[in-house]
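Recall from the previous lesson that a structure prediction takes nothing but the amino acid sequence as input. Here we apply that procedure to Probable cell division protein WhiA from Ruminococcus albus 8. The sequence below is the only information supplied.
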Amino acid sequence: MNNTSAEEQSFSYRVKEEIIEKINSSQKADACLMGLLCCCNELGDNEILFLTENPLVKDFFIRNVCRILQDENAVHVAEAERRSGVTLFSLSLPDKEQRIYLLDYFGMDESRRLTEDFLPKDKFFPNLAAGIFLACGSVNDPSKKYHMEFVMPKLELCNDFGLLLIERYGIVPKHVERKNSQIMYIKESENIIDMLTLMSATMCSLELMNVKMEKDMRNKINRALNCDNANIDKTLKAAERQIADIELIDKKLGLSSLPDQLREIAELRLENPDYNLKELGAEMTPPISRSGANHRLQKLAEIAADLRRKEGIKTSDI
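The prediction returns the following tokens.
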């Protein structure tokens, strides 16, 4: 079954696709393959076995192992269909001499340790990291959540890789053990962006940045709307009280009995129940400040309160 139909749509698949597209020299390919071999399912003189569901990663492994061994038939490929319908590719090296040669080529052994003696030159370390991601890494769609992880076969490898990321690039991963696998994971969006950039997945890194910017902007807008809604509710409740005061004054005394300044703002409030104090003040002739509008409405509230006391009217009766 074709694995790419569903997987191609995933962000993780596109990251791996971009990583492989950016490998444009044998030195970069070697460093990347070394990272991939570190995370093989089996690695040693007796067996080298790598399992993957990704056809691009499969092709990269075969192409570069065969290049180093100068044997186009060096890798044996077997396929098995999983219950999910996804094809699992099993890649192995049947020839023991070729296995030994490949391990010696990279200075690797069964320990899989990333020691300074055998690491590629600093400028090729990003390709090593990319190879580790190709073998055992995944990253979630950033529109859903920020999460990158590496499912590693050995704790020592997990520690070595994590320490190198911290010391060289300030990328700080975390660790957890899950079903006998060592999981190195990153949840901070900035660290994931840095990791994608490090591995040369720059377009995917930019995509994540854009998603993060959109999320941040939406959050700011939502916070502003929530704040605005709270202010609107506060304004409307205050306006309801003010209108009740003005209607009582109009009923008992008539608005014409009020001084011009109070009568004008009383009429404006009745005409504009949704205006805030600043907007009411701006409608006055001449315009007055927010505090000026508030002062006049307070005067109306005092008149209404005095009427209620005289009439024995409770606020709840209005």
